[in-house]
Amino acid sequence: MKTALIALLLLSTPALAFPVTVKSCNREVTFDAPPARAIANDVNLVEMMLALGLHDRMVGYTGVSGWKTLDEELRAGIAELPELSAQYPSREVLLGAEPDFFFAGWNYGMKVGGEVTPETLEPLGIKTYELTESCIFVGPKARSSMQDMYNDLLNLGTIFGVEDRAKDLVAGYEAKLAETTASVDRTNPLRVFVYDSGEETPFTAGAYAIPTALIEAAGGRNIMDDLDKSWATVAWEPVVERNPEVIVIVNYGDVTAEEKIAFLEGNPAFANVDAVKNDRYVVLEYVEATPGPRNIRAVEKLVAGFWGK
Question: pLDDT band at 69, cuts 50/70/90?
Answer without folding.
Answer: confident
